[in-house]
Amino acid sequence: MSDLVTTRRLDRVLVVTIDNPPVNALAPGVAEGIAAAVHAAQTDESVEGIVVVGSGSTFVAGADIKEFGRIVAGERPMLALNPLFNEIESSAKPVVMALHGNVLGGGLELAMAGHYRIADRRTKLGQPEVKLGLIPGAGGTQRLPRLVGLETALEMCVFGESINAPRALELGLVDFVVETDLVQAACAFLLTAPPPRRTRDHTSNLLNPDQAQSLAGRVKPEVGRRLRLQTAPLAAVDAICSAASLPFEDGLAHEAKLFAECLYGEQSSALIHTFFGERTVSRIADLPKDAKPLEIRLAGVVGAGTMGAGIAQCYAAAGIPVLLKDADPTALERGMTGIRSALAGQAAKGRITPQEAEQRLALITPIADWSGFERCDLIIEAVFEDLDLKRRVFAQLDEIARPGAVLASNTSTLDIDALARCTRRPERVVGHHFFSPAPVMKLLEVVRGAATDDEVLATTMALAKRLKKTAVVSRNAFGFIGNRMFGPYRAQAVSIAEEGAAPWDVDQALYDWGMAMGPLAVGDLFGLDVAWRMKQMALKLGIAHLDADTFEDRLFGQGRLGQKSGAGWYLYGSDRKLTQDPDVEAQLRLYAAEMAIPQRRFSPERIVERCLDALINEGGRLLAEGVAQREVDVDMVYVLGYGFPAWRGGPMYCAARTGKRKIYERMLRRYERYGPFWKPSEWLRA
Ligand code: 3HC
Ligand code: NAI
To answer: Per-residue pLDDT averaged across 107-114, rounded?
Structure first.
């Protein structure tokens, strides 16, 4: 037996244990080891049944994702789990899968190849392959619908969300849920001599082929809407619905074909990059391993506006008590009202229970003065984006906070070191840049000031995990990673509109490419006043060679601030629904004539290329300056905070795919023709 799989005897039961930490992924050797043990048990007369169990905290979290890149690169053969799972399923002696922790992807497929499934109450089960741009590739699309029906199988495989053990029991995916010792319960069950029961033979849950076809026809448009432009979810629909029309083995072959198409497709590589990227960003090269995080038992939030109220909810969701303060009593009341209605909304949608909503609300204490802040382990400031105001707030926090407390700012652009200098403890100051809406957005951009000490950084990274955020560290620089890159990206969108494209065509091109929103509509969302102020700061600092006078500045000058004023690049009704404004286009053409900007036509491809080149080049500058640690940090900021499609991997990943040389050369041509905006970054030049 390999090291990855061991066997032992408990009375007349053979217990097969998978031991491949940390998540018992099905690396080469694991499924082989289980199948070999099952095979050997067939001829051992003293064995009456087999239990398969995972060691450590989990059963099996899937195939080994690290293998996929190697397969695509031709370094490894294609996965061949089906013959092994079929061997397990064909066992003449009953096989019980004893499940705990995560039973995901290939892990659930392995479990379904057993004859019975017994699960610990806290087990999570799912087919999350679509999140990696894949479909289940070891029989999941054929066995799951046999156990739970086509509709539920579609729900699980197309959206990739896990279910808990009680739900799996209701659905018939597991046979027993226990709270006692799992292996003992499995052995006890086996000694009742249950007959082997192959999942493949269980066809009563399958629809007839016509019904399956019409289900696929109904589901596909919804999938196309919810998971726009993604290929794997639609492939999953095909594979699952084929279970109703194809014999089992043909169904497996059809699944294998679709799985391979997904695996060799670009979306899967990009999504695998983001899977590992989300985990890589938590590693900070020069943070000593022994830097100990401080425990956060009480937090304080200053400013109860959009962000402060959202951040307070993030803390409460993690079970951390939080004090929420605002200088304006009306704003504080408004903040609390917003929190109450957000929690009620989540409870109404079933995302949390009414009790959880109440518990979270009880953890948030609105405070008019500073009482209690002296006990906080961390205080985060989310007042208006005004350097002088924030300086005053930091000086005050320095007076009030206990020694050792972490002082954080949610600023989206300002100089963290300047804030740190207003205190006598610059080493305790750090940027915690949340994104709006804070309870929803996964990104936490962490700004490491020049003086920020290791303990504060370690505390921040541990806290982010507790808040279920992905923290990406940026050095202190104007706009940090995200907003600094957003400037040149949006500047290109504005230029293209000035050069002849309709604003909505610019937005549509980027939306159709996969961005969550077009860049001009995003400007309207966060406010053209905010965009203007940010640009003035960038101009003052000589960053990115932005144009001092653009058409967008004119819109701002007319009081068109975007959604908040009912008009910006678009017009907005009371429901904030956008409509195109022909007047904006007419004004744009007048502006172009006045500024003698030559007019031309733009294809969607050209629009996307120019905007992305600007984004990539600024990312390159941040890498060259050491503001961002690695390409993957830039990618994760964009995927998690700026609506960049995860299935495209992030801007720097896209650059690598297109070829840095190619981008460098076209950038150089533009630089020679149009000037310093296009100066290729050192990162691209290298
Ligand atoms: N393969 C390889 N490594 C994996 C892995 C997998 N399936 N799942 C997790 N890991 C690694 C992580 O990269 C991480 O490594 P690191 O410590 O070096 O960064 C380590 O295991 C721990 O993972 P997390 O930090 O994510 O730990 P959590 O406790 O937060 O989460 C988890 C655990 C829920 C299992 C989460 O890791 C997860 O969602 N994993 C992926 C599950 C998945 O997508 N499975 C399907 C794989 S594809 C497949 O099975 C195809 C099949 O149909 C043929
Ligand atoms: P907001 O205008 O909604 O709220 C700011 C709140 O701070 C107001 O309620 C105000 O009364 C309060 N305040 C002002 N001075 C105060 C003081 N001295 N003491 C206590 N409270 C005070 O602003 P918003 O949007 O929440 O922004 C806050 C910070 O978050 C800014 O730095 C902003 O740049 C940043 N940010 C904003 C994002 C957004 O999308 N709105 C996203 C990420 C960061």
So the answer is: 98
